[in-house]
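Extended Data, record Precorrin-6A synthase [deacetylating]
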Amino acid sequence: MSAAPAHIIEDLWLIGIGTGSPAHVTGEGMQALRDAAVILVPDKGDDKGDLLALRHAILTQSGTAAQVIRFEYPVRDPALPYQDRVAQWHDEIARRWQAAMAEADRAGPVALLVWGDPSLYDSTLRIAGRLAPSPRLRVVPGITAIQALTAAHALPLNTVNGPVTITTGRRLRDHGWPQGAETVVVMLDGECAFRDLPADTLIWWGAFLGMPEQILVHGSVGDVADRIVQTRADARTQHGWIMDTYLLRKGADGSGE
C-alpha cells in the first residue's frame, strides 16, 4: 500500500491548551504534543505576536520533537453576512492546514493547539470536518475559559440546583436575557452587550485568564460596566488582542453554592 501524499492529514489531534497559562495544559495534552509528528501553528500577525509566543512556550515546555509548521491565519471578510463570512473563513482555514502540510517531511499524527477546550465555542472541530479525506480525530480536552473565570473569582458556577446558560455576546445583544436562566456565561462579546442589562445585574468579568496579565472586575452592571469597557479597550490597545468572558446573575448576592 502506498503512503498517503504528504499534504493529506490522516490523524488530526486537537489539543486544548487552556486560557493562556502553560500550567493549564493537562498531562494528557503535554504527552500528545510529545507524540505528535507535526504541529501546525497559526500566525495571526505582528499585533498578536503574544499568542504565537505563548504557543511556542507551551511547545518548549512539552519537550516535543515534532516538526512545527507555521501558517498564516486568514481574516474574515466583514463585507459578507455573518453566516457566510464564518463559512468562507472556515473553508479557507481548512485549505491552509492542508497547504501547510506540503512542508511536512515526516508522517504521523498532526496536532493543533486549541485555546480553551475544542468543544466549547471553538470552531476547530467544524473546520476539521471540511478536510478531505476526513482524518481520524482525537480531541484532548483543556481548561475552559469558564473554569478559569470561576476559579479566578472563587465563584461557584451555578446557584443551588440552578441552571446555567452559556451563550454569546451576539445572542445576548439580539435576544436579551435567556428565558429561565439564573446564571448566564457570555463568551465572544466584543461589543460589551452587558451594558444593556438592568443596573442591578451582577457581573464577574475576566480577561487574560490564567496569565500574568489577568484582569478581574466584579460588581453590579450599573457600577462597573463603564470600568469594564474602558479596561477592556485599554488592554486591547496594549496587547493588540484580548480574550475575555463573564458570568451574570440576577438578584440576591448571586453567590450560589
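Summary. Residues 146-249 form a domain with the Methyltransferase, Cobalt-precorrin-4 Transmethylase; Domain 2 fold (CATH 3.30.950.10).
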